[in-house]
Design goal:
2% strand, mainly alpha, two-stranded antiparallel sheet, Transcriptional regulator
Length: 482
């Protein structure tokens, strides 16, 4: 057996699966050779080969797939390549991975998260050819609304996990989330995917009490959500969709309905984001309706126990959907409900994972809604309020509102002020690695170009945006060849 990877740490995942299956090294070797022969593939796997796998070596493809196939047969459940401790290097033509379904069981969901994150880590172009489909959110949303009582989350399998271990995970997630706001996802996404893969594997192979199990699942759900958010930030919308779906399943498995509602709000937000870029009115309206339905599902999932800030978030994203749909009255109603909910908020009564949704974030959301339904002055006032009150580390959010305000001043024919804000947005975007910020600048540039002859300031802004986009394109092309 050849190897395409050097030996590293011992493969404890494979060792645990062999022990569970009651298979010796020789038995696995024989079964892998037989499984290969069934497919007309000759492999030279022997006892020494298996020992190398257990020592951490990565066997050549298709041996990892055959090992997973053999173990799946013996354990009577689906075992993925990554669960066996191998890098998944499935040729793109052979990849039938979906990752959109709800498994219906806790173990099934966790296995899906392990496989999803493992493929994401090991394959740079994973799901790049897949498209975001708004309708794919329908099944998990319905599942969340009808899910049966939470399963028992206690497990006796391996290393003992306690609450201090869970607290370390959540602190690491909070740190990565702050780095994401400051530097954006292109620089830190790999770290959260690795953390998610490691801790989801801990859920499967650790020992913990019911209380710790729920907390551990909650922490893994937060990591999965952040992986999805970062995927969206780098333009990997199809991958983000799969992370969000599995995050929702994890939250429901943990019995955390408030976090499940939060996930539904981000499903709604992503759907609005995609809808704004829709080519046809039909697609735009379809995304808008789906976004509204997801936000309303979030309200329903909470069983009336949503905190004021969570309620404000759900009303705000519903307002974004109504604004995309062009429903001015429904938008204003949802905006008013969001404001009233936030007025009742008390920081000590809100979950820590919701601390990111500050008054500035709410103002930015509501300002965009009002701007989009024909109230530009009030919308601009709220967006300006957001920019003035953002914490210094919210660099990406600041870039978003700078482009929003530049657009508003373009509409008002204040070209000099629009150009100044646009230049600020370009400087801010240069500090982060975010596809979303570049998309915002492209949109701004499309609005600037027809007007550049009217103002030398706009002409200069157009050139600055082009320069930034060109430099980012060159950097991306260089990364793709390394």
């Amino acid at each position: 057996m050849g190897r395409d990877g050097r030996a590293g740490d011992s493969n404890t995942a494979l060792r645990a699966l062999l022990d569970e299956a009651g298979m010796s090294n020789a038995a696995l070797a024989r079964a892998v050779v037989t499984a290969g022969a069934e497919e007309g593939v000759h492999v030279g796997t022997n006892t020494t080969s298996v020992k190398r796998m257990l020592d951490g070596s990565q066997p050549r493809w298709p041996v990892p797939r055959l090992v997973a196939k053999v173990l799946s047969r013996h354990l009577h459940r689906e075992i993925s390549v990554t669960e066996c401790g191998f890098a998944d290097r499935t040729p793109a033509s052979d990849d039938r991975y979906d990752g959109l379904q709800c498994s219906g069981t806790l173990d099934g969901t966790v296995r899906t998260v392990v496989e999803l994150s493992g493929r994401d880590m090991d394959r740079r172009k994973f799901l790049l050819g897949s498209a975001f489909t708004a309708a794919a959110f329908s099944e998990p949303a319905l599942f969340a609304l009808t899910v049966p009582p939470t399963e028992n989350t206690a497990r006796v399998a391996g290393k003992r996990i306690g609450m201090p271990d869970v607290e370390i995970i959540t602190e690491n997630i909070a740190h990565l989330r702050r780095l994401d706001h400051r530097y954006s996802s292109g620089r830190v996404r790999e770290q959260i995917v690795q953390l998610l893969h490691r801790e989801a594997s801990t859920v499967m192979h650790g020992s913990y009490s019911e209380k710790t199990g729920k907390a551990l699942l909650g922490a893994v759900a937060q990591a999965s959500w952040l992986a999805g958010s970062m995927a969206a930030d780098v333009g990997r919308h199809s991958l983000a969709q799969r992370y969000y779906i599995q995050t929702l399943n994890l939250a429901m498995s943990a019995g955390d309905r408030l976090y499940a509602a939060n996930v539904l709000s981000h499903m709604s937000r992503l759907t609005v984001q995609i809808g704004h870029g829709a080519i046809t009115d039909h697609d735009r309206l379809r995304h808008a309706r789906q976004a509204i339905a997801l936000a309303r599902a979030g309200h329903s999932v909470t069983d009336g126990k949503a905190t004021p800030v969570l309620s404000a978030l759900l009303h705000a994203v519903e307002a974004r959907g109504h604004a995309l749909l062009g429903e001015a009255n429904a938008t204003r109603t949802a905006v008013l409900q969001a404001e009233r909910c936030y007025e009742r908020a008390r920081a000590d009564d809100e979950p820590t994972w919701l601390a990111f949704y500050t008054e500035a974030e709410l103002a930015a959301d509501l300002g965009r809604c009002l701007r989009d339904v024909g109230e530009p002055e009030q919308g601009t006032r709220l967006i300006s309020q957001a920019m003035d009150t953002y914490e210094p580390w919210r660099v990406r959010s600041r870039c978003f509102v700078q482009t929003d305000l530049a657009t508003a001043h373009l509409v008002g024919r204040d070209y000099e002020h629009a150009a100044a804000l646009g230049r600020d947005a370009v400087r801010t975007a240069a500090q982060v690695s975010s596809t979303r910020t570049l998309d915002r600048l492209r949109t701004l540039q499309r609005q600037v170009r027809p007007l550049r002859a009217s103002s030398r300031h706009l002409g200069e802004l157009d050139e600055r945006i082009t320069d930034l986009l060109t430099r980012n394109r060159a950097r991306r092309d260089e990364d793709s060849t390394t």
